[in-house]
Amino acid sequence: MTSTANFINIGERTNVTGSAKFKKLILGDDYDAALEVARDQVENGAQIIDVNMDEGMLDSKEAMEKFLKLIASEPDICRVPIMIDSSKWDIIEAGLKTVQGKAIVNSISLKEGEEPFKHYAKLVRRYGAAVVVMAFDTDGQADTAARKYEICERSYRILVDEVGFPPEDIIFDPNIFAVATGIEEHNNYAVEFFEAAKQIKANLPYARVSGGLSNVSFSFRGNDPVREAMHSVFLYHGIKAGLDMAIVNAGQLTIYDDIPPSLLEPVEDVILNRRDDATERLLDAAEQYRGQGGQKREVDLSWREGPVQQRLTHALVNGITEYIVEDTEEARANATRPLDVIEGPLMAGMDVVGDLFGSGKMFLPQVVKSARVMKQSVAYLMPFMEKEKEEAGITEDSNAGTILLATVKGDVHDIGKNIVGVVLQCNNYKIIDLGVMVPAADILACAKEENVDIIGLSGLITPSLDEMVTVASEMERQGFDVPLLIGGATTSKVHTAVKIDPTYRKNQTVYVTDASRAVGVASHIMNHETRAEFLKETRAEYEEMARRHAQGKKQSARAPLEQARANKYVVDWSSYQPPVPQFLGLKTFETYDLAELTRYIDWTPFFQTWELVGKYPQILDDAKIGEAATQLYNDAQVMLQRIIGEQWLTPKAVIGFWPANARGDDILLYADETRHEVASIFHTLRQQMARSSDRSNFALADFIAPEETNTPDHLGGFVVTAGGVEEQVKRFKEAHDDYSAILLQALADRFAEAFAERMHERARKEFWAYASEEAFDNEALIKESYQGIRPAPGYPASPDHTEKRTLFRLLESEQRIGVGLTESCAMLPASSVSGLYFSHPESQYFGVGKIGKDQVEDYAKRKGVPFEEMERWLRPNLGYES
Questions:
Q1: Which of 232, 236, 221, 237 is nearest to 263 (CA)?
Q2: pLDDT band at 5, cuts 50/70/90?
Q3: Is the pTM value of this prediction over 0.85?
Q4: φ, ψ for residue 487 (rounded to 5)?
Q5: Do 70 and 46 contact (CB within 8 A), yes or no?
Q6: 29 an active-site residue?
């Protein structure tokens, strides 16, 4: 959950009781199309999907099992949790037995009394799921705030005190009911929900609040503009009251600030029950909006007619740099000191930006543009301030605090860290950015010298996690007493609580989800009134999380390695002849056409870099973030033309193919087709989760013909790079244009991924030629509709980063295309991609997950690496305490 999203969006369309389309597909046994419904929800921003198969004409239990099994084989769907929704326990239990990962049960309640409630709660806990608890008891559904809270509190006490249910796994649904129905008793339903949510969040620790949003507007079905406005207004006030998540179609939300005043006022009157005639007034207003869409605001220069304070605020909010120098000079001429311009109108404008960002009315790309305006204004003022200092002996300017940021040793990725730094600078924090691959000694030496208030560490690859533990341990040893912030793609709150926090006890370690949370965390820390309580609450939360994690590890079941191997994925090699590549050895591409690669760009992850969640191109029309996404996309297209026209990037690639066979969980690469000499070995890891009889324990070696079959097989490998962008990024930063610097880094990453996609396509069609007639458009390529896979070392199917060393040595990547590895096996330049090519039509992606000590010992022995060292590299995948 982030402040840019404001709530967890639970996708509602995979529900046969709520979606006529989905119901028709399931009844028609068209599960492929039904999967597309689920995929569309995830791609359009659903962080959870609700699956319901309650239909009289269905074998609902069978349908639930079948659909969840299909979801489990779709990596782009199963990456989000599943909410198993049914009114029948046997269907829920069937789902719990089938679903992968941590599920959410929707729902249980006290409607049948306490004993059945406890019974089902214990079963949910046994399956390790979270649960939605309805505000429903033997007297019926709760409609008043008092009844809602009373039932939720009673349920909470039973779950936590008697059942031992983890409180963080409890989600209360205090019932969203329809308002404006014409029945007077219904008028206060939304207010009652808000009041109940406030009480739940204030008194029932760790519990979440959810609800079915569409219920509130049921009286206006058929009038989408009014329903969308009611949903947005309900969310706006509900989130403030404590609403954490909702079952909602995000595509049917309008931006709160875009609701016309003539509609907003009567809608708020209804939602907040502000007047006796609210329903009648909304019915009158609704007639004007039936069938209408939102109106776009015109852009003009009328804002230039306002006073300079208003102009500066407008420029900051809208990211307009054209007039910033002249407006800054006007403000300086009217001020006593140049610093007064920063501390006065500029910070006042940035306060507006911060408020809009924090309330979800402004988005990250817009905030970074605001920072560009701010920096250019400050850069103009700097010579005046320096001169003033020289003449009057004025000391250092004040700021909200000093924060040191660094990407830890061995890691080269810093886009996220750069965004965090920009957002914090917008809020008047002094940022010291040490860059990438920074050793612990350098971080701590700088922190002492600059007397920083906070240290922030970033990392993308899994070895960075251990390096963060090293930094934290050194902070403890050297007696540091400043908060330590942890962030980056590979980090998590659980890892922070379990591994980092215990090593640094003199102050507190805090996990920061993303840039949108950084300001809130920093402000709590720097505020003397909130600091102590914030750090105390964080420590207590992390200690409890670590305790529960340890308890969960003891309870988790792992299959012994030999049992997992006995349940390997079995390919019928007797009826399959593996394809032979067109060449063996290496092929190098010294350059590549950038314009050609643009056709292979997957834009969806580009928007995710900027914390805009949704599938491209639909995201451009999204009711909430579409405008911001479109502006960002247009800026990216302009920069793309500069990248291509001015050749800012130099794409290079090396690919290779080798004769191969599998020996157990290892893949042998031979020196030539005689297959007498083993030239190298790729070591793979096997899943060890306890499986039912119809599910295999996968390893990548399963997709290569075993040597005992005497079937000659092959393996491919690749490294591609978009080239380094450091010099151009540096020029942008020197021009106080962080927005363009981050935009360029994000586009370089997209080019690298596009290059990997293009080279894999050529491998399939030309160089290995097992799919020479393949004809997929870019959307099908993004969905991986083709035969074969390209798993990368360090990712779920092959989590050991050190396997890159073998790949890079075989491909001679540093000598041929200048792509090397850091000591932590991060690729340098950063905008690079590597991996292996598998051709077998049954090859598929999977996650190895947690593994047992027996496999780590076996794996270390196979690789000839000390056990302790192998544990360190595989730490995120260890299913036991090391």
A1: 232
A2: very low
A3: no
A4: -155, 170
A5: no
A6: no
